[in-house]
Amino acid sequence: MSKAVTGKPAAAPAARTELCGLTIAQAAAGLEARKFSAVELTRAHLAAIEALDSRLNAFITVTPELALEQAAAADLRLATGDGRTLTGIPLAIKDLFCTEGVRTTAASRILEPFTPPYESTVTAQLKDSGAVFLGKANLDEFAMGSSNMTSGFGPVENPWQRRGSNVKLVPGGSSGGSAAAVAARMAMGATGTDTGGSIRQPASFCGLAGIKPTYGRCSRYGIVAFASSLDQAGPLARTVEDCAILLGAMAGFDAKDSTSAERPVPYFRGAVTAGVRGKRIGIPAEYRMPGMPEEIEALWQRGVRWLKSEGAEIVDISLPHTKYGLPVYYIVAPAEASSNLARYDGVRFGARIDGEDLIDMYERTRAAGFGAEVKRRIMIGTYVLSAGYYDAYYLKAQKVRALILRDFEQAFAKVDAILTPTAPSAAFGMGEKMDDPIKMYLNDVFTVPASLAGVPAMSVPAGLSEEGLPLGLQVIGRHFDEETVFAVSGALEQAADFRSKPAVMAKGA
Ligand code: GLN
């Protein structure tokens, strides 16, 4: 295909998987300079998937024919000088985004047979920008989880390993398939969604950059709903700049989502190198949790020093309601989930298990279609919304949520951005924390407050744990001020100079 387009000799039969090591920015430049074709770049990634994914399980569905078709179309555009920002760039799409004609499961057995007749706005915009879709990435079922262990299509393995150990680790969740795919160089970037940390925590566990933009920045149209007042789409990639490029294509007003914000999309890429001179960075006292591992505290202090030496002013701040973040989140998110998931009744789409009557059919379908964590959330959500408990739990949680938002507003009167760790630990072993849901929920302690407040937050790879696993720092910004988040993240990235690579990845990348 590349031959027909470029008139050059046919590509060597072996896929050039070394191309998988490029960043999106580098690959876009290489494509434009015709150093390699989009078809070659896509073939390289498909070969990496072929070689690695039977082990990692980062994809639920791989679409090689579609990808090669899109790549060939990209080459045609490039040949006529008609390339756009992402023309020919191979991406993984979290299997929570509806893709027209391509099965979309939300990693749930209840949606196993579902092929959407329409496209989500975010993926439609990525396609318009020229991106190539390699396939649909694995996730926790309906994005409920922090480990990818709840997927109805099997867990995802983190391509990283502890030094001198081959214990299998989780990639984090819920966008764990997206993160594993990008870390293993099976995709150049990926879409994720973040309801309480699902972009940032897997980014931290897999040594990637990932941003949850301001609530309303990206359209939720066509994204399978988990908790509608919290869900936001965002990118995962290997550099801050790549995230800025991807978010630029994903963001923007959409009349089809009533909570989408009617705001112009800034040139995020330009913000990445803006620097932090004169910026005030807040350090919230309440994020220093009792029992926090020494290495997480040390990483945080390193981040503070880096920003200070780049000319930022460090300011101690207080976010007094931080300790209510997790309890509030684990009331609001299940409440909204229980209502959103009522639509899976075996009638309109997805799986159906027939029963003796209508109610019996509902019960059998939902009993067989949903996994244990999803059932737990539906039960919690139904309980906190039920008459008699609504005021005590749901309404109270909404009030405390308003206080958490106020904490951020008061802090942002004094500072331009906030620096915290992303997660309280490095990646843990597959199967760990499965016996106790509370332990699993504690993963989200640093990420849920920004979700509840709707403010943008990004995780940047900042160092390695003692065992050689990636650790991320989180940068939180004001509503719709992703530019400052990118500037601070860019400065951290440069100072951290994170070059370590995972144990499992594309050959030569
Ligand atoms: N881990 C959190 C949960 O299980 C967040 C998930 C998400 O952001 N989608 O709800």
Notable traits:
single chain, 509 residues, alpha/beta, Amidase signature (AS) enzymes, eleven-stranded mixed sheet, 38% helix, 12% strand, binds glutamine
Topology:
Elements lengths: L1 H5 L17 H9 L5 H19 L2 E4 L1 H16 L10 E5 L26 H8 L3 E6 L38 H8 L5 E6 L5 H7 L2 E4 L19 E6 L2 H11 L17 H4 L8 E5 L9 H16 L3 E5 L7 H16 L17 H12 L2 H14 L4 H22 L5 E5 L15 H5 L6 H6 L3 E8 L5 E8 L4 H15 L13
Parallel strand pairs: 2-3, 2-4, 7-8, 7-9
Antiparallel strand pairs: 1-3, 4-6, 5-6, 5-10, 9-11, 10-11
Helix pairs in contact: 3-4, 6-7, 11-13, 11-14
Structure, briefly:
This protein is 38% helix and 12% strand.
Instruction: Estimate the global geometry from the Cα principal axes.
Output: globular
Helix content: 25-40%
Q: Please give the count of helices.
A: 17
Q: Could you state the order of secondary-structure elements as H and E?
A: HHHEHEHEHEHEEHHEHEHHHHEHHEEH
Biggest sheet, spatial arrangement of strands: 1-3-2-4-6-5-10-11-9-7-8
**Ligands bound, unique:** glutamine
CATH topology of the domain at 15-271 and 484-496: Amidase signature (AS) enzymes
How many strands in all? 11
